[in-house]
Amino acid sequence: MTATLMTGTDLAAEMVAKAADRARALQERTGVQPCLATVLVGDDPASATYVRMKQNRSKKAGIGSRSVVLPAETTTEELVAELTKLSEDPAVHGILLQHPVPAQIDERAAFEAIDPAKDVDGVTTRSFGAMAFGEPGFRSATPGGIMRLLEAYDVPIAGAHAVVIGRSPILGKPVGMLLLASNATVTYTHSRTTDLPAIVRTADIVVAAVGRANFVQGDWLKPGAVVVDAGYNEGNVGDVDFAAAAEVASLITPVPGGVGPMTIALLLEQAVDAAEAQTV
């Protein structure tokens, strides 16, 4: 392997430790403990595991957690009502809706039921607009974590050509906006892009967020490219053929241990941000 691993574990631990210090200071100063509410619909094992992980990390950061688990047959209206209730609860400072939700639910309607002031996962259109226009607001957790990771490894972003593979409203689209705000030239692509490998070969920075295991091949990459694998598939496999890509890239994120820890760390950091903003 020639590429240097761009791991998020240590940086994420530093971020969580700093968030814990701020949470402790806020509680000592005001008596208010930051509280993150997690909402899970159904009993998908992977989603349940993610929620437990986030709750455990919250506790380590001195952030209180409230867990709401709804049955798989929950309707959009019922979920919206629950999210509205949490949005109106002054004891809750941040809200995380674990996604994806069951097929019968209008996910966008559910996201929009979250008060933007409590949208610490950065999933509302208000948060997306803030990212797009460079206004204050919460970043989508995974894209925001990716940017912090690139900064920590001193990756030159200004003037670089970044190719984003994926167009989801909570990952692909916002990470492109954040890269653009940092003066990268951004190309959005996806699984249906014509001659995708040729476009990827022009990239200085590749962000793989397409949701297909081992989708990005090593021979798609320009020698020395920085590869960020934001995918997570069954069997702890990312969206990039890691072994092949590592022979070509200069920096590459592992799966697990790359983007994942950064996502949770930024979520917790933003939960403390929200609590501080909501506490007079």
Automatic annotation (TrEMBL):
Organism: Kribbella capetownensis
Protein's name according to its UniProt entry: Bifunctional protein FolD
Classification via InterPro entries: Aminoacid_DH-like_N_sf, NAD(P)-bd_dom_sf, THF_DH/CycHdrlase, THF_DH/CycHdrlase_cat_dom, THF_DH/CycHdrlase_CS, THF_DH/CycHdrlase_NAD-bd_dom
Keywords: Amino-acid biosynthesis, Histidine biosynthesis, Hydrolase, Methionine biosynthesis, Multifunctional enzyme, NADP, One-carbon metabolism, Oxidoreductase, Purine biosynthesis
Pathway: One-carbon metabolism; tetrahydrofolate interconversion
Biological classification of the source: Bacteria, Bacillati, Actinomycetota, Actinomycetes, Propionibacteriales
GO cellular component, one term: cytosol
Residue span(s) of domain Tetrahydrofolate dehydrogenase/cyclohydrolase NAD(P)-binding: 140-278
GO molecular function, one term: methylenetetrahydrofolate dehydrogenase (NADP+) activity
CDD domains: NAD_bind_m-THF_DH_Cyclohyd
